[in-house]
């Protein structure tokens, strides 16, 4: 059986590839409304064979699948996906995206000019969905009411 690698229309850093492997081998990228600049990147752990991700593109190879929604693929073309373990919280982020001029400094939100710090819609300290150990700073939790909607 031949193992093929399918490359996405954007760059993926070595740290992002390693993070995908360490997280179980399949991460989905999507885009939704929200965040301080109007739209935000959303990441989730998925089964690449699940019918719920059937319309999504699959990039990579067995052990490191990147599943990309049609909406995210349009926005990510020409960008760079990175994973930064040293940031708090550790997270995936989009670097150098030529299709999104306006971005939040945390690289999670895009679409409209950054409105400045301390926005109630800020996602800079929101942990990845699989990271239950990270405890965001108290001031950020207060300003965004994070955790109060759970």
* Rounded mean pLDDT score: 88
CATH level 1 name = Mainly Beta
Strand order of the largest sheet: 4-5-2-3-8
CATH topology name = Hypothetical Protein Aq_1857, Chain: A
Shape: globular
Please state the structural category: alpha/beta
Could you explain the architecture of this structure?
With 150 residues, the chain is α/β, with parallel strands linked by helices. 15% of the residues lie in helices and 27% in strands. It has a single domain (11-144), classed as HesB-like domain (Hypothetical Protein Aq_1857, Chain: A), CATH 2.60.300.12. Strands 4-5-2-3-8 form a five-stranded mixed beta sheet. A three-stranded mixed beta sheet has the order 1-6-7. It has helices at residues 14-22, 70-76, 138-144, and strands at 11-12, 26-33, 38-45, 57-61, 64-68, 80-84, 91-95, 109-111. It is built from three helices and eight strands; from the N terminus they run βαββββαβββα.
């Amino acid at each position: 059986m031949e193992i093929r690698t399918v490359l996405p229309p954007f760059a993926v850093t070595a740290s992002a590839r390693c993070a995908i492997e360490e997280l179980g081998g399949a991460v989905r990228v999507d885009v939704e409304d929200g965040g301080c600049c109007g739209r935000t990147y959303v990441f989730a752990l998925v089964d690449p064979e699940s019918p719920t991700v059937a319309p999504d593109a699959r990039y990579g190879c067995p052990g490191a699948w990147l599943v990309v929604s049609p909406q995210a693929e349009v926005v990510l073309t020409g960008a760079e996906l990175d994973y930064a373990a040293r940031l708090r919280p550790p997270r995936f982020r989009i670097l150098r995206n030529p299709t999104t001029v306006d971005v939040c400094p945390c690289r999670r939100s895009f679409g409209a000019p950054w409105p400045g710090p301390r926005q109630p819609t800020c996602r800079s300290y929101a942990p990845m969905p699989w990271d239950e150990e990270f405890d965001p700073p108290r001031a950020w939790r207060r300003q965004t009411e994070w955790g109060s909607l759970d």
